[in-house]
Amino acid sequence: MPYTARIAIIGAGPSGLALAALLQAQSIHPTIYDLRAEPTPAFFAAPCGMLDLHEDSGLKIIRAAGLWDAFQAELGGCSEECRVLSPAAETLHTDQGQLSSRPEIARNALTKLLLGAVTPGSVKWGHKVSSVHSARTETGATEVTLDLGADGKATYDFVVGADGAWSRVRAMLTDIVPVYTGAQYVNATLRDATAKFPQLVDLVGSGTTMALGGGRGIMTHRGPQDSIRLYIAVKTPLENWAEEIGIAGKTTAEAKEVLLGEGGGFEKWAPELRELLSTACDEETSDHPGTVVDVLPLYMLPAGSRWETQVGATLVGDAAHLMTPWGGEGVNQALLDSLELSNVVGGVGQVESVVEWQEKLEAPMKGFEEAMVVRAKEVAEQSSKNGEMMLGEHGGQAIADIFKMFADIAANGGEFPEGLL
């Protein structure tokens, strides 16, 4: 009988689930491990971050997985409208989405969509992979062992690290680790915005708004439950910034007093933008009493990071090329990784042994990794440049100028440059 390779995917995020769905469509059935509890209907319905999927990457996977119609049904929480404001709340740019063809979907909705395309029972929820090791067997095959703590150990012929920024699989392949980028996010969400805060809906609109300047930013997306999701961005060389300014361990409502108070980064911003920040922080604490403020230092892997190809394991998504969020490329590159890797694994065909399977996989795997690194390097570098512009002294105007360039290009029938926003 033909040999069936034992494959594990670590991480049930978009890239891990997409890879599983695409492999299962080729009658290849991996096991997926994720440390989180199985998502509930309440989880899927909750407000969360929004993701814009791009035609040449994320949307290709939606189509390849046969999810296009289901994907369309999940849209609508956030339009493609875009506004750019100054810290004084001056409108620097606005459009109704005519400069974009990147539909927005809630992260939780995308997870639900991809999970629905995976065979039930494929994901082992609540399983933490604490370490990954490989060894050569007496037959000459490479065997990869997962240490699952209280759940014991499991061995596989091939393991894919879709396990994010601090990947355990990457730690087996290389000693490269993420580096701090000099920026931080504070996250907050307010729900039922239209009924409760119509003046804030008028301010941010139905899509995305970016208020930028002086190394600071308030960026918003509309989302599920008529929500407004805030990303309060701060440029700072201090990796321990939250501790230094005294918001670590505080509630979001308490943290806003520091951000808006004397010497705070948003002390002199326009009253309507201060109201937006204040209201979202208060609502976040009202919805989650006692929960500490969600502060996210932004990290990235050095652009172009490479590891020596090993026949028993590889990486996709943030595990392979963690990048900054300035431009929305992270999830799109991750999904494209999964499409390309599924073609490589599916192309091995029928074999008689694990040794033969791994031998046939090695050269295509090396090619996949090399191409992925080159592709992601260019995107990661542009993403970093976008961030430098957005958190520059005149970030709002810099971004508005780019949108003006886009409008001029569109008016003259040209093509947009790759990677910008």
Automatic annotation (TrEMBL):
SUPFAM superfamilies to which the protein is assigned, alphabetical: FAD/NAD(P)-binding domain
Gene3D superfamilies: FAD/NAD(P)-binding domain
Parts of the chain that traverse the membrane: none
Protein name, per record: FAD-binding domain-containing protein
Taxonomic superkingdom: Eukaryota
Pfam families: FAD_binding_3 (PF01494)
Location of the FAD-binding domain: 6-174, 315-342
Swiss-Prot/TrEMBL keywords: FAD, Flavoprotein, Monooxygenase, Oxidoreductase, Signal
Keyword Oxidoreductase set for record: yes
InterPro entries per UniProt: FAD-bd, FAD/NAD-bd_sf
Signal peptide region: 1-20
Source organism per UniProt: Pseudogymnoascus verrucosus
GO molecular function, one term: FAD binding
